[in-house]
């Protein structure tokens, strides 16, 4: 999980001071020392750490904090605000050519996840109403063109390639012509990776830049390489001039050193973060939301956006009506479970809940339980799903045999569902859920 190791350490430090009613200069020195160690252990650039600690210490030592009624909370806010700045301050959005086709040049080291990131960006932009075309300009790596074509086929996004040519500038230029003739408004050029910052291949990128005049150059870096990712970003920026960074494999980086260093070192924003292997697992990088996640404050906005992406408005209205009328059945329960699975791993969703995510971070969440419940419900007839009260002993036995489980498993599900239904009846009577009224449309 992204930042998990650093997040645990920083949350423990913040926990010590959050409730303090008095903070001395000695406390601030101790807090600064612990934060410094946490950042260094997260593989954050030393100069970045030094600057960050200096800013936090200076603001925390201010009289408005020392004399505040809640100085602990003030220090937490200072750390949060400085983390937001460190991560980039504001969200770095993609810029588009107002006068024609927008060309994005995708660059990076070999193995950074560049081809997959190209597909993910194309998929993301299509959801925003764009018509992307992928252009295959990695003519060196075996099967690189085929890989991009497979990604394009999975997403139903066109891929332009000239398989018998090694002239990448010509391929890219022909790709732009193809986009103009076919009505595509975005061209994403997937370039050859390099094992290290290689002069020959870097010259090729310089020629590509001159040949197609990309509106933005996006560097894909592997978050798990830590400080090396920052060095790579610095080299590419000096030699090519990048406009933004896509952080791949952020979901597997428990330290977070690259994401915490790269903006401060290069001055270039992280525009997207890849948070999984699937082609829809790419998110705009929001510094404020990420800082809140690191400090255990949750990320409700991202959770809402995930829900809006996967849950149809009409379905939400139907569910609300069923909750009001207390007619929620196992068919509805199954549909809601399937919607939740689309939103992503349950562990990730829970971490977005303020407070709750931090309390449950060590709880072993069995994702397979979803599949077991799904199997039991699918073994029922439509009549049984719509009216669980008719499920007697013989029906339970048949359902258990149908899904390869025990009758006790079926009993457990029915008991849990019955308890949930009783709670929903109480909600329907009072018109409230957890003290909150139902939203009125």
Distance between the termini: 37 Å
CATH architecture of the largest domain: 3-Layer(aba) Sandwich
**Total domain units:** 3
Give a quick account of the main beta sheet: strands, pairing sense, barrel closure: 8 strands, mixed
Structural class, from helix and strand content? Answer: alpha/beta
How many beta-strand runs?
A: 10
* CATH homology group of the largest domain: P-loop containing nucleotide triphosphate hydrolases
Contiguous uncertain segments of 5+ residues:
355-360, 431-441
Question: Quick one: overall form?
Answer: flat
Alpha carbon gyration radius = 26 Å
Overall average residue pLDDT: 80
Range of helix content: 55-70%
What name does the CATH topology of the largest domain carry?
Rossmann fold
Which percent range describes the beta-strand content?
A: 5-15%
CATH class of the largest domain: Alpha Beta
- Output the number of helix runs: 21
Strand neighbour order, sheet with most strands: 3-2-4-1-5-6-7-8
Overview of this structure, please?
This protein is an alpha/beta fold and 441 residues long. The protein is built from 21 helices and ten strands. The strands form two sheets. Strands 3-2-4-1-5-6-7-8 form an eight-stranded mixed β-sheet, with helices on both faces. A two-stranded antiparallel sheet has the order 9-10. Helix 3 packs antiparallel against helix 5 (71-86) and helix 8 runs parallel beside helix 9 (199-212). The longest helix is centred in the C-terminal third of the chain and has 24 residues, at 407-430. The two termini are 37 Å apart. The model is unreliable at 355-360 and 431-441 (pLDDT under 50).
């Amino acid at each position: 999980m992204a930042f998990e190791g650093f997040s645990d350490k920083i949350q423990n430090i913040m926990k010590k001071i959050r409730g303090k009613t008095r903070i001395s200069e000695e406390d601030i020195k101790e807090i600064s020392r612990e934060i410094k160690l946490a950042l260094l252990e997260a593989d954050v650039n030393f100069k970045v750490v030094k600057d960050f600690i200096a800013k936090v210490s200076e603001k925390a030592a201010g009289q408005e904090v020392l004399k505040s009624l809640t100085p602990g909370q003030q220090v937490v806010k200072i750390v949060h605000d400085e983390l937001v700045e460190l991560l980039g301050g504001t969200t770095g959005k993609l810029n588009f050519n107002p006068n024609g086709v927008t060309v994005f040049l995708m660059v990076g080291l070999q193995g950074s996840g560049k081809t997959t990131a190209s597909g993910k960006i194309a998929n993301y932009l299509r959801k925003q109403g764009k018509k992307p075309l992928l252009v295959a300009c990695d003519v060196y790596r075996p099967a690189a063109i085929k890989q991009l074509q497979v990604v394009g086929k999975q997403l139903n996004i066109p891929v332009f390639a000239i398989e018998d040519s090694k002239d990448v500038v010509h391929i890219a230029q022909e790709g732009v012509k193809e986009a103009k003739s076919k009505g595509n408004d975005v061209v994403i050029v997937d370039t050859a990776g390099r094992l290290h910052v290689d002069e020959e291949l870097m010259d090729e990128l310089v020629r590509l830049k001159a040949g197609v005049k990309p509106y933005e150059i996006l560097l894909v870096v592997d978050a798990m390489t830590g400080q090396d990712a920052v060095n790579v970003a610095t080299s590419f920026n000096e030699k090519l001039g990048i406009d933004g960074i896509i952080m791949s494999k952020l979901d597997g980086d428990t330290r977070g050193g690259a994401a915490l260093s790269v903006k401060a070192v290069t001055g270039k924003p992280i525009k997207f973060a890849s948070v999984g292997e699937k082609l829809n697992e790419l998110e705009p990088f929001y510094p404020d939301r990420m800082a809140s996640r690191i400090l255990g404050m949750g990320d409700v906005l991202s959770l809402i956006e995930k829900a809006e992406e996967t849950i149809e408005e009409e379905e939400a209205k139907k569910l609300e009506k069923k909750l009001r009328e207390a007619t929620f059945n196992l068919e509805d329960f199954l549909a809601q479970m399937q919607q939740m699975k689309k939103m992503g791993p349950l562990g990730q969703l829970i971490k977005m809940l303020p407070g709750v995510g931090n309390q449950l971070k060590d709880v072993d969440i069995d994702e397979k339980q979803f599949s077991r419940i799904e199997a039991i419900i699918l073994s029922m007839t439509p009549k049984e799903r719509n009216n669980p009260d008719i499920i007697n002993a013989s029906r339970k036995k048949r359902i258990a045999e149908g899904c390869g489980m025990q009758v006790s498993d079926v009993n457990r599900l029915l008991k849990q569902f019955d308890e949930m239904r009783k709670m929903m009846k109480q909600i329907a009577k009072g018109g409230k859920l957890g003290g909150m009224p139902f939203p009125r449309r």
